[in-house]
Amino acid sequence: MPQNEYIERFQKQHGRRLDYEERVRKRTARESHKVSKDSQHLTGLRAKLYQKKRHHEKIQMKKRIRQTEESNVKSSGPSEPSSTPLPQYLLDRSQPTNAKALSSAIKNKRNEKAAKFSVPLPKVKGISEEEMFKVVKTGKKTAKKGWKRMITKPTFVGPDFTRRPVKYERFIRPMGLRYKKAHVTHPELKVTVQLPIISVKKNPQNPMYTQLGVLTKGTIIEVNVSELGMVTAGGKVVWGRWAQVTNNPEMDGCLNAVLLV
Amino acid sequence: MATVLPPPSKRQRTAVAEKAKEQQEIESIPNNLGSIRVQFVDQGTGQSSGAPVSIPVADATARNLELLLNTLQRNDPSERIPYRFTYHADPSDLSKAVDISNDLYHSLLKPGLKTTEDSITLQYTPQAVFRVRAVSRCSSSIPGHGEAILATSFSPRSSSKLATGSGDSTARIFDCDTGTPLHTLKGHTSWVLVVSWSPDDSTVATGSMDNTVRLWDPKTGEALGTPLKGHSKWVTSLAWEPYHLQTPGRPRLASSSKDSTVRIWDVVSKRIESVLSGHKGSVSCVRWGGTGRIYTSSHDKSVKVWDANKGTLIHTLSSHAHWVNHLALSTDFVLRTAYHDHTGETPETQEGRIKKARERFEKAATINNEIVERLVTASDDFTIFLWEPSSSTKPLARLMGHQKQVNYVTFSPDGLHIASAGWDNHVKLWNARDGKFIATLRGHVGPVYMTCFSPDSRLLVSGSKDCTLKVWDVRTGKLKEDLPGHKDEVYAVDWSPDGTKVGSGGKDKAVRIWCH
C-alpha cells in the first residue's frame, strides 16, 4: 500500500512526462475501441463482471441523457400552462398526474347507457379445458381416479387462502403462478401504477374460472386504487375499481390491466 | 336468531367509565366556593362598565355573565348583545389571555390562575348580534359556464348577486334569488382568474390569464370602457381601495400579477397610477388596508408593505422560507363590505356612507384603543406568520402545525379567529390575538383549497378537492354540515356578506348556491 501521495509529490517536483497530454488524448480516443474489444472477447467471470459494470454505466448514461433532455426543453411560454383551466393558486404548481380526472371521466361515461357494459377487450379467444387444466396423475390413488386437476394459468387467491386437505383438493393453484398485484394503466391519463388486486370479478371463459380466480386475458379484476386518492361525489375515498386484464399473463409473467372508465 | 353482541371487554369498560367520569367533572361546579368579584372592561376602549360586581362562583357561567353585563349596560332585553369574555393576566402580554369558554370556575379558578379572594378584571367583546344559520342544502345548481369555475364572489350589498370567473374566458353574474344567470361578461381572451366587487357594489373587476383587468357594470352587464392593459403576465389578485379612503368618484384598484409587479389603476380614467415593483417573484396576493397601506405577498418569500398614495415601499417582512401563497387582513370583511351591514340600511348621502364605512372599519380594527391592522400570511414552508406591520417588522407569532403547504388563510369577520387550509386535508383554527392553536377541523379527504367564515364568525365553510363543501362550527370545532353535490373539485367558495347563502364553483362547471 502506498503510504503517501508520492505520485502527486513527484509530479509537483519534476512535472509530468513531456508527452503526457498527447498520451491521454490518444487513450481517450481509443477508449471506445477497447470497450468494444473487451465486451466481445472477455470470457468467464471477467466477462460477467465487465457486463455488469457496463450495464450500470449505461443506466447512468441514459438517466443523464434524459435529465439533460428535460432541462433543454425550450418552452415558448404558452399563455395557458395547462389545457384545463386552473385557479390562480394552482397555476405555478407542478400538478402530480392526479387520478382525479379518472373519477369525473368515469362519471361522464356512466351517463351514457351503452357505455355501461363496454370494456376495452370485448372478445377473447376461448381456452379449452385441456389447456386450462393438467390432470394430476402422481400418487397411487389419484392416478387411478384421475380427478385431480392443476390449473396451468396464473391465478389470484385471496390473502387468507389456505389449501384444502390433499384428499379433497380438486383444483391445485400453483404457488408460482399466483399474483397479488397488477400493473394498471389509466387509459386517459396514460399512467401506469402497480396496484394490489382485491378480487377477480369475472372471467369471460367460464364462471367456474371466476370462482377459482383464474387470470387470463380479458378477465375483469377489482384493484385497490386508494393510493390514487380518487373520491366519490360524496367526498369519500374510492378504494376499489374494476380493471380488465390486457395481456396473457401466463406468457408474459406479469399482469397488465386497464382501468375501466 | 338475532345476533347477540359480545359483552364489552375490560378495556372498553374502563374507557367508557373514564369518559363518563370526565364528562361528569366538566359539568359540575362545586357550590361551596362563595362568590367572586368581577370587573368588566371593554376590550376595544378599555373603559370599565362600572363598579366591580360580586357573583356567586356556582352561577358564574359565560351565559350568566353575558346576561349580567347586558343588564349593567342597560341594553334593551329584546336586543341583548352576545359577549365574549377574556381574562388578561398581564395586559402587556397578549399571549397570556384566557377565554372564558364555559364558566369562570373551569377557566380561571380550577387552573389556579385566580382565587375567590381576588378581584377579576374581565374584558368583553361584543359578538355579532345576528346569527347565521348553517347552510344545509343546495338551492340551485346553475349550469352555463363552459369550463371550470375559478373564482366566485358575492356582491357586498346582499346575497342576491354572485359573480363568477371561469376557464371559458367569461365571467358571469347570477341572480341567486331565482337561481338564474343574469349577465355574461364577455371580453377576456383567456381564463378569468379573479373576480372582485367594488365595496360600493357599483363595479365588478375581473383579472385574467390574458394579462388584463376589465371592469364591468353589474347592473347591465356591460363593459366599463377598455381593458386595463399593462401587466406582462397573468393577474393573480385584485384589491379595491377601501371605501372610506377613496376620493369620491375616483376609486382605485390594485392588481397583482405573475410578472412580479403590482399596479394601481385609476378606475375612472383607466390609467396606471403607480407600479409597485420590488418583488422578485410572482406576486401571489394583494390587499389594500384601511390605513392606506398595500400589502403584497410573493413567491420570492417576502411580504411587502407599501404606501398606497406615494407608491413607496414601507417595510419588507421576510421570515418565510418558501413561497408566500396567501395573505389576509383582520379587517378584510369590513373593507369588502364597507357601509353595507347586516341591517341592510345604507346611508343616503355619500358623506354618510363614507362615515359609516370609516366607523365600521375603526370598530373592527380597534384593539386597546388603537387602530391596528393585523396580517396573516400562509406559505409553502408549512407555516403561517401573524404580523402587526404598524408596530414591528418581526412577526407576532409563527403558527406551526400544518404538515403540508398552506394555501389559504383567512381572518374571521370579528377578527378573533384565523382559519388556514392547505394540502394536508385539514383546516386549522387559530386564535388571532396571539396565534395560539385552537383546533384542527378534520374531515376532508383531499386538499382544502379555500375557506370562508360566515359574517357572524360562528361558522366556517371549506371547499376541497374531494368534491365536497363542509360547514364547521367555529366554537366547538365540529363538523356542522357536510355538503356533497359537486361532481368534481371545488375551486372557489364564498359566503355572502349577509350570511344567507354560500356560492361555490369548481371543475364540474356548475355554480352551486347553498342555503339553509
UniProtKB/TrEMBL annotation, chain A:
Keyword set, alphabetical order: Nucleus, Ribonucleoprotein, Ribosome biogenesis, rRNA processing
Compositional bias (Polar residues): 73-86
Positions of the UniProt region annotated as Disordered: 1-91
Biased composition (Basic and acidic residues): 1-40
Annotated InterPro entries: NSA2_fam, Ribosomal_Se8/biogenesis_NSA2
GO biological process per UniProt: ribosomal large subunit biogenesis; rRNA processing
Record GO cellular component, one term: preribosome
Compartments, record wording: Nucleus, Nucleolus
UniProt KW Nucleus keyword: yes
CDD domains in the record: NSA2
Ribonucleoprotein found in the keyword field: yes
Main location: nucleus
A Pfam family matched in the record: Ribosomal_S8e
Bilayer-spanning residue ranges: none
Biased composition (Basic residues): 49-65
Family membership: Belongs to the eukaryotic ribosomal protein eS8 family. Ribosome biogenesis protein NSA2 subfamily.
Function as written in the Swiss-Prot or TrEMBL entry: Involved in the biogenesis of the 60S ribosomal subunit. May play a part in the quality control of pre-60S particles.
Subunit structure: Component of the pre-66S ribosomal particle.
Classification via PANTHER family: RIBOSOME BIOGENESIS PROTEIN NSA2 HOMOLOG
Protein name, as recorded: Ribosome biogenesis protein NSA2 homolog
Organism lineage: Eukaryota, Fungi, Dikarya, Ascomycota, Pezizomycotina
Automatic annotation (TrEMBL), chain B:
Pfam families: WD40
UniProt xrefs under SUPFAM superfamilies: Quinoprotein alcohol dehydrogenase-like
TM helices/strands, residue ranges: none
Cited SMART domains: WD40
InterPro entries documented for this protein: Quinoprotein_ADH-like_sf, WD40/YVTN_repeat-like_dom_sf, WD40_G-protein_beta-like, WD40_PAC1, WD40_repeat_CS, WD40_rpt
Biological process, per Gene Ontology: ribosomal large subunit assembly
Cited CDD domains: WD40 (cd00200)
Localization of this protein: Nucleus, Nucleolus
Gene3D superfamilies per UniProt: YVTN repeat-like/Quinoprotein amine dehydrogenase
Listed GO CC annotations: nucleolus
UniProt-annotated stretches for the region Disordered: 1-25
Top-level taxon of origin: Eukaryota
Annotated keywords: Nucleus, Repeat, WD repeat
Entry keyword annotation includes Membrane: no
WD repeats: 142-184, 185-226, 228-275, 276-316, 399-440, 441-482, 483-516
Family: Belongs to the NLE1/RSA4 family.
The protein's name in its UniProt record: Ribosome assembly protein 4
Organism name: Cladonia borealis
Organism taxonomic ancestry: Eukaryota, Fungi, Dikarya, Ascomycota, Pezizomycotina
